[in-house]
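User: Hi! I have a protein structure encoded as tokens and I'd like to know what sequence might fold into it. I'm fairly new to this, so please keep things simple.
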């Protein structure tokens, strides 16, 4: 069974809602999801790093604060340098999500930071894989999948409202689909590795 780590920060709960949806998608695809919450910059990140090292794939989640990942997530990203030093995550799979208040809000930049984190570790990035809405903008609503039309990863939008109601259902379902996609990719990746080892034996 593919084990998928979901390493996320959420200052006000909106990213946490999506982390839970990603975990549901992982389980729906037959995988095991491990939620790893980043609490703040001063935390001991070693347990999170170890859990990611023990997983088949990781989904990074960070709020967009001033057009980039939050300071807490950035502190975590810097703490991964000890893994970088030994190539510990090389050839693993990675994906990512972010939430911000505006429809754009420079979320693309946050996703770019997540892809760079993965790339510096030599990880393979899994994009969102959910097409942007094909309906006119006026017909898009809270149930629309990939509402803001992102390709690199999940870009969700939350109002200044309780995480119980925002981000809306369409963003949560898009997060669930991302979890399914990552779990299935991890299963294929492991099967490919097994087959290569068998051929080499
Ligand atoms: C310090 C700070 C900076 C923010 N910067 C942005 C921003 O650049 N763009 C944007 O659209 N929203 C911005 N927001 C809004 C958050 O992205 C939004 O509230 C999001 O839902 C927070 O996610 P969280 O609840 O998981 O922390 C900012 C919020 C805070 C607290």
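Assistant: Happy to help. Inverse folding works backwards from shape to sequence: for each of the 201 positions I chose a residue that suits the local structure. Here it is:
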């Amino acid at each position: 069974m593919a084990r998928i780590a979901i390493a996320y920060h959420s200052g006000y709960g909106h990213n946490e809602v999506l982390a839970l949806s990603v975990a549901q998608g992982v389980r729906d695809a037959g995988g095991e999801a491990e939620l790893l919450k980043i609490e703040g910059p001063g935390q001991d990140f070693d347990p999170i790093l170890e859990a990611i090292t023990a997983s088949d794939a990781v989904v990074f989640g960070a709020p967009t604060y001033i057009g980039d990942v939050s300071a807490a997530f950035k502190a975590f990203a810097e703490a991964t340098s000890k893994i970088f030093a030994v190539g510990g995550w090389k050839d693993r799979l990675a994906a990512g999500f972010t939430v911000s208040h505006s429809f754009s809000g420079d979320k693309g930049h946050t996703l770019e930071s997540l892809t760079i984190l993965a790339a510096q570790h030599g990880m393979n990035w899994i994009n969102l894989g959910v097409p942007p809405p094909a309906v006119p903008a006026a017909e898009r609503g809270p149930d629309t999948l990939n509402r803001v039309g992102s390709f690199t990863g999940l870009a969700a939008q939350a109002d200044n409202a309780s995480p119980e109601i925002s981000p809306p259902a369409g963003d949560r379902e898009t997060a669930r689909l991302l979890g399914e996609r990552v779990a299935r990719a991890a299963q294929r990746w492991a099967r490919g590795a097994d087959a290569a080892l068998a051929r080499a034996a």
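A useful reference point when you look it over: Strands lie at 3-9, 32-38, 57-65, 68-69, 93-100, 124-125, 154-157. Feel free to ask if any position seems puzzling.
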